[in-house]
Design goal:
The protein has 657 residues and is an alpha/beta fold. The chain has 3 domains: 215 residues, Hypothetical protein af1432; 239 residues, P-loop containing nucleotide triphosphate hydrolases (Rossmann fold), CATH 3.40.50.300; 153 residues, Rossmann fold. 40% of the residues lie in helices and 12% in strands. β1 and β2 form a beta hairpin. α1 runs parallel beside α9 and α13 runs parallel beside α14.
Length: 657
């Protein structure tokens, strides 16, 4: 058999003909060049987290393709038949990532120092999973007894070292977060470098030419969108009349406190402008060059959908024309008008090439529009679970972690999560701080214990238990103690009258008659039940009690079991009708009824004249009360006072089966 050289070994095949058409050498050089350009665009603090020599390690990710098990995958490879005859083909290792990791572990300088081998875990994990968990490989992959490919791998590794420099040399045994970040960096570089439309088989690997091509593609992805500097608070949120929109105390205090990366916990009542405080702080961090983007995380799809529009307006006022924002949750493409226009294909391939379009922003959105790549978009809003996947044993978790590195990450309504989710959020905070991110936590009803847990997640402690409210808690990156900054000014006064009712067969008809009468008298009533079944039953009971004077479109039901497009339409309609002011042609009705589950209890701008809610934990009751008399307006007769009816279960209540 004629000897096989590097130039004969393929890394990518033609998707049409199946013929090998890109060599392993060229592919590794392309991916290394992508990593080099990406690294130069990262915030300084993220660069410092990645080890020296990381570019060469990323470039070497596919040296394991120089193995019989991989090369024989292409039946049309000219050496296929001759090589197969010389091997015992049964049991050949076809996972080239494992071969890459093992070969790097066995190089002379690393074979003697086990603690340095931990960096190569990132190489083995560049297809989304770590083959041996958080430890180096313990045994070699089976290669069929053919030793000739080992020398080819040595030859290619030497080429990469000469071009990109030495491999990482520092110790890495206890560097879990850094290894995870390096894995994500490798995956993203590989996905870009594997795009055959951007880097065809005949691509020039000349230093200058390849660098130009790589940077052109990164520019097309809007990886570093331009920021309009010097925008004051009013220009950020109300450019038409900026002088009429001055920062409130909570916003001024956070801006002054957030002079360094770290963790910031903002505790303030509903309606005081916590969202705007987080956004203007993010803008300040961007203009100082410390962070590179934003992810705004909320508990539910509804809340993330609604905040998306507000953040889109904010970005339009603060960024250049080349900004790209994604809406990120399981059904995001149904809710995001931009994503709808892009006609998703449900593909999640590594290629993900955008088609040629006149609109560059649409082109970038198309590339980011897949489950695994959405979080990489510079600016995003979505559900918290999409961020938590970065620290869970999920496939491509490392890519999500890299996507969040160096960003401003806002977690809203943090009090609403159960102990399991709270523990995951603590872990996410620890990882984000170590990846150079700034984390903003927003809450109206945070307990002292939960605040202490969040501070501990940032590797700090509280010296005291502050009594002030509203309050900002600051943990600068690297600090061992938290500082507490009270927000000046008086709290707005709002009196809520609580009425407790225990419904049973003897009184429930009279109670629901009373609620229906309020609607007939012109009140906009919101009823929040704890289950879909209860919400459906209540909707039927009340609808039957209402006269024809109340139009059918002013009586609604909201819960999570609706088809997504119908749910979106209902949510849009009710947030428009019961929001701060007339919007999208919807004026505030004179008499309406909305029955919902808890999907409306947080971060939704719905203003009820009267509220009915099931009994729930105290912090959730407070959130639901935030929908009652939310804005200043004249109330209908009988609703001048803010009244919240709390429904208690009957004495024989056993819960749902």
């Amino acid at each position: 058999m004629k000897p096989i050289s590097l130039k004969h070994c393929w890394a990518k095949t033609d998707p049409v003909t199946g013929l090998p058409h890109l060599s392993v050498t060229d592919h590794c050089i392309v991916v290394g060049s992508v990593a080099q350009a990406l690294w130069a665009r990262l915030p300084k603090r993220v660069q410092n987290v990645l080890p020296a020599g990381c570019i060469t390690l990323v470039a070497a990710h596919d040296i394991g393709k120089l193995t019989p098990g991989f090369q024989l995958k292409a039946p049309l490879w000219p050496w296929h038949e001759a090589l197969q005859q010389t091997l015992i083909a049964d049991g050949l290792t076809t996972n080239h990532a494992i071969v890459s990791q093992w070969h790097l572990q066995c190089t002379e300088s690393y074979a003697r120092n086990k603690k340095q081998q931990y960096w190569f875990i990132s190489t083995g994990g560049h297809h989304g999973r770590y083959p041996c968990g958080s430890k180096p490989l313990k045994r070699p992959p089976y290669e069929g007894g053919n030793q000739s490919f080992i020398s080819l791998r040595d030859e290619l590794l030497q080429i990469l070292v000469e071009r990109f420099g030495a491999l990482p040399s520092e110790l890495a045994k206890n560097e879990t977060e850094r290894i995870h970040l390096l894995t994500g960096f490798t995956i993203f570089s590989d996905w870009i470098g594997s795009n055959s439309d951007w880097f065809p088989p005949k691509v020039s690997t000349d230093h200058a030419s390849l660098a130009t091509t790589v940077n052109q593609q990164l520019d097309a992805l809007k990886w570093n969108p331009s920021i309009r500097t010097g925008r004051n608070f009013g220009q950020q949120f109300n450019p038409i009349a900026p002088n009429d929109f001055a920062p409130r105390p909570i916003q001024q205090t956070l801006l002054q406190a957030a002079d360094t990366p770290g963790l910031y916990i903002v505790e303030a009542p509903m309606g005081m402008g916590k969202t705007e405080a987080a956004l203007t702080t993010a803008y300040q961090r961007w203009t100082q060059g410390d962070e590179r983007g934003l992810y705004f995380a909320l508990p539910t799809q509804l809340t993330s959908n609604k905040i998306h529009d507000r953040i889109t307006d904010f970005l339009r006022n603060t960024l250049g024309e080349d900004s790209t924002q994604a809406l990120i949750h399981g059904n995001a493409w149904l809710g995001d008008k931009k994503c709808q226009r892009l006609a998703p294909t449900f593909e999640e391939s590594e290629k993900g090439a955008p088609e040629n379009e006149a609109n560059d922003q649409n082109e970038a959105l198309r590339w980011y529009n897949s489950t695994r790549k959405q979080l990489i978009a510079p600016f995003g809003t979505g559900t918290i679970d999409q961020a938590l996947l970065a620290v869970l044993p999920a496939r491509f978790a490392a890519l999500r972690y890299f996507a969040l590195a160096g960003k401003v990450v806002v977690i809203d309504e943090v009090h609403s999560f159960d102990p399991y989710m709270s523990a995951l959020i603590d872990r996410l905070i620890r990882y984000l701080i170590k990846a150079g991110a700034t984390v903003l936590i927003l809450s109206a009803t945070l307990t002292a214990q939960r605040r202490a847990e969040l501070v501990q997640a940032a590797d700090a402690i509280e010296n005291d238990a502050p009594q002030a409210y509203p309050l900002i808690t600051k943990v600068a990156t690297g600090a061992s103690h938290a500082s507490h900054i009270p927000v000046p000014g008086e709290l707005p006064q709002k009196t809520i009258h609580l009425k407790h009712s225990q419904l049973d067969d003897s009184n429930q008809n009279a109670f629901w008659d009373q609620i229906a009468a309020k609607v007939e008298a012109g009140a906009n009533v919101v009823v929040i039940r704890n289950t879909v079944g209860l919400a459906q039953e209540t909707y039927r009971l009340l609808k039957a009690r209402l006269s024809e004077r109340i139009p059918p479109e002013h009586v609604g039901l909201l819960h999570s079991r609706f088809p997504q497009n119908e749910r979106d339409r209902n949510e849009d309609k009710w947030t428009s009708m019961l929001g701060k002011g007339d919007k999208d042609g919807h004026s505030r009705p004179t008499g309406s009824l909305l029955v919902s589950t808890q999907i409306v209890e947080q971060s939704v701008d719905i203003d009820a004249d009267c509220l009915v809610t099931d009994l729930a934990p105290t912090e959730l009751i407070l959130q639901r009360i935030g929908r009652l008399h939310r804005h200043v307006r004249t109330r209908p007769a009988g609703c001048e006072q803010a009244i919240c009816h709390i429904l208690h279960p009957s004495t024989d209540w056993q819960g749902d089966a």
